[in-house]
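Replying to the earlier thread about multi-chain prediction with a worked example.

Input:
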Amino acid sequence: MTTSAQPAVVIVGAGPAGIRAAQTLHQHGVNACLVDEGLRGGGQIYRRQPENFRREAKALYGFEASKATAVHQAMDEMATEIDYRPQTLVWNAENQRLDVVRDGRADAIDYTHLIVAAGATDRILPVPGWTLPGVYSLGAAQIALKYQGCAIGERVVFAGSGPLLYLVAYQYAKAGAKVVAVLDSAPFSAQCRALPALLGQPMTLAKGLYYRAWLTAHGIAVHQGATLQRIEGEKRVNGVQWQGSGPVQQLDCDAVAFAHALRSETQLADLLGCEFQWSALNRAWLPSRDSAGRSSVPGVYLAGDGAGIMGADAAEMAGELAALALLADNGKPFDPVRSEHLQRKLGAIERFRHGLETAFPFPLEWAGKVPDETIICRCEEISAGDIRATVNEGHWEINRVKAMCRVGMGRCQGRMCGLAATELVAHCSGRELQTVGRLRGQAPIKPLPFGLESQP
Amino acid sequence: MALLKRLVELDRPALAFTLDGEPASGLQGDTLLTAVLTNSEHLRGSDFSAEPRAGFCMMGACQDCWVRLGDGRRVRACSTLLEPGQVVSRDPGRQL
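Result:
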């Protein structure tokens, strides 16, 4: 696809991937339209505090302060020169047009080329009591602190698994919050097995080890092979039950942060008609892309965690790489050596990512053990038992199960429950996870205000 | 009673607002979620059992922090900044 006309490029998402993509295009004389739901660019992991907050980058981002600052600087340097649209939700995408809404007003943006960098949310495996006030995702707990200077409670338990678990617990303790305990579902043996792959990125490994050592050195209980079983309370959290190798144990607390790593936001890629393929690593169907980020749809590129969980460093590289691919596809001059260099570095991060999956393995036993009364879909209040009953009536395709029992049909469109529901359906029907399908994206991909005004 | 605990950035101008008709106070730069949950313990009632909810993802994805403003708009509390004099009301939810 070589054309001499200037491409009309839109980038969705102003996190590390979207910002680097916009910057790369800007440096090559192409000013993209950068659309972002956030108030200020940075995405989630490098989310910026409101303008009147005063903490230094070091206090907000720790070891990642220089990376976060560099991404923010890239954003600030081009913000007035490109068409940057913060607080703007893209709610539909088809036929080279995006439907957007900002402040209750609808608009449409036409494009010839689109880079989707929609990011991720926490991957949640529900336990009884997870809808109580005081229970948040790990990402939410971090946002409360980073973006608002708040802890999610007075006495916080951190549970689940993944790199974010130790990072957020460390950040809380460092900021003066009371961390009651860290319950890591991954056994220590898994982390030993993962060492060879993790040594490929020694700095990242060292940081992870540092957080855990710091917690232990400060007298915070860190339990490995420990499963969060139940969150207790009437109107808010007052404790948790957890189990290691021994009997069930109790902890008093007034807040819980939990998640098992992250999941990709793929709804736009779905609406755009991108082909999906099964990712055993992510336990999810993800939009296909070539090594530079081209999707199966000409003119549509994918970058960052929204196309598969690789983390912020990889997102920056993938954003730049997708922009270089876009330039190449439009016959613009670009540096192929840089492109190859980025692809090699992304390959190394992917090997590390496999190591992380070994170190923090997905808890395969969850689907068999989660009690029937557990709410899985918090929007529609559909329980594990409701889903199992639907499977026992003979349904096993996830969209069919959704139609029958309404799991994933609520306002969040399955962002919080979809993966858990899929795991349950696969386990209960005795099928392989990839065969039960994936929840289809539907426009609007997030709720729109009633009485939406359109531009004249 | 508050759900969230302020740890840092306490030195900001106070902003008065009303929560379900009662006077309340937040700080400049607070989201509605922070302002409401440093004054109380929930944001809304759920749609099928009216159980209290206080948001979950804080990044605009879970749709479990919607509150109503005085001008009739319904907004996500996690992604909307508090403004002085704002009239915020909570939906009690519905029971089947």
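Chain B touches chain A through 41 residues (CB under 8 Å).

Feel free to reuse this layout for your own posts.
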